[in-house]
Amino acid sequence: MRSDYLFTSESVSEGHPDKVSDQISDAIVDLMLAKDPEARVACETMTTTQRVVLSGEIRCKPMYDLSRDEWKYNNYWAPGARDEIESAVRRTVAEIGYEQSGFHWETLVFENHLHGQSSEIAMGVDAGDAGSNKDEGAGDQGIMFGFACDETPDLMPATLDYSHKILEQLAADRKSGAAPFLEPDAKSQVTLRYENGKPVGCTAIVVSTQHAAGYHEGNKEAELKSYVKGVVTKILPKGFINGETAWHINPTGAFEIGGPDGDAGLTGRKIIVDTYGGASPHGGGAFSGKDPTKVDRSAAYITRYLAKNVVAAGLARRCTIQIAYAIGVSEPLSLYVDTHGTAADGVTDAAVEDAIKGIGKLGGLTPRGIREHLGLNKPIYRKSAAYGHFGRTADGDFFPWERTDLVDDLKAVLAG
């Protein structure tokens, strides 16, 4: 491993067009799971100027009748279901803060092209009838990665953690009125200098934020840039901002047209922002819009949970975990742990793998076991769809994969 280097991660705000799409898709997941904890959802959202389009597949008994065979060609919605979906979409856009002529929650054109889930997919995922040995299978094949490191209290890569927190503060100030010149769309990027594998200073900050009219020139531009510098300086550790730091605040100039009016948005295009900022491998699957039978989501959550607990337990300073599944098969195909040469004395990667496999409460890391251990069949996903799925605070039902309640189990199995 290199010990001295520069590393960069980026984040995007809740008003970024792709993140608007992610939040809408997860609002639909939450709506369906609130109606039916066993709902199946694969919801894709496209946003553009004054328009939101949904597509994908669902199975939700209170919302959609799947008792007929023509699921591909007809919609069998329960009374009022379409209205509930549209209300969830408009409410999400309003909460983000879009009331602009090019994208307004109340006047945008909405299209719903969701339909029933394929019976062939359902057959592979569903558990067998009573007496059958078939457990619920994975909703798709694929590989998923989890990661944790000791660079921040959140056990996340520092470059991404600070990038998220900068934009979270901008959004909070926009909504509270402390920074009324801000609009919802924004991006951030943080470059840190690492020495001996630890972040020690910031060499570059990039923040591009949508703004009210005129805040790209004169005194108003100076006010905006001064405000952004103040936010960044408070968020980064003391001493990280210094004479070496290069600032790029709205480097292209005016940024009045933003969000879906400025660029089309799609669900699932910010998978590195959603995970580890490039500090870890990624299996390629997006999260938002998917119910927890989809291992793209649930297995990525359990691997983060496992990696975080490994680091929290002091077993390693850095940990990557990979898991793999086949569609319709319940048992994982493989489990891989890499502590990148940072494991504690006497701890091996193979021993950590065996310890994970030996913890019975994890349910063998089957899709059902993951969902039951983390409590994923709940409407908890909209909150995860902006500012990262990881490095968040576990709070009641929300972000259960951020808990560190497996520390004692890991230590006990390794010690035994």
Keywords:
416 residues; alpha+beta; four-stranded mixed sheet; 11 helices; 22% strand
Give an overview of the whole structure.
By secondary structure, the protein is an alpha+beta fold. It contains eleven helices and 13 strands. It has helices at 17-35, 81-96, 119-125, 158-176, 218-235, 259-262, 271-274, 295-312, 349-357, 367-374, 407-415; strands spanning 5-12, 40-48, 51-59, 99-100, 103-104, 109-116, 142-149, 182-195, 198-211, 246-249, 265-266, 318-325, 334-338. The strands form four sheets. Strands 1-8-9-10 form a four-stranded mixed beta sheet, covered by helices on one side. Strands 6-3-2-11 form a four-stranded mixed beta sheet. Strand 4 and strand 5 form a beta hairpin. The longest helix has 19 residues, at 17-35. It is flat and about 65 Å long. The two termini are 31 Å apart. The mean pLDDT is 93.
Question: Helix and strand layout, with pairings?
Answer:
Layout: E1 5-12, H1 17-35, E2 40-48, E3 51-59, H2 81-96, E4 99-100, E5 103-104, E6 109-116, H3 119-125, E7 142-149, H4 158-176, E8 182-195, E9 198-211, H5 218-235, E10 246-249, H6 259-262, E11 265-266, H7 271-274, H8 295-312, E12 318-325, E13 334-338, H9 349-357, H10 367-374, H11 407-415
Parallel strand pairs: 3-6, 9-10
Antiparallel strand pairs: 1-8, 2-3, 2-11, 4-5, 7-12, 8-9, 12-13
Distance between the termini: 31 Å
Number of helices: 11
> What structural class do helix, strand and pairing data support?
alpha+beta
The dominant shape is flat
Question: What is the H/E string?
Answer: EHEEHEEEHEHEEHEHEHHEEHHH
Radius of gyration: 22 Å
Low-confidence stretches: none
Instruction: Give the strand tally.
Output: 13
Helix fraction, binned, reads 25-40%
Instruction: State which percent range the strand residues make up.
Output: 15-25%
Strand order in the sheet with the most strands: 1-8-9-10
**Rounded average pLDDT:** 93
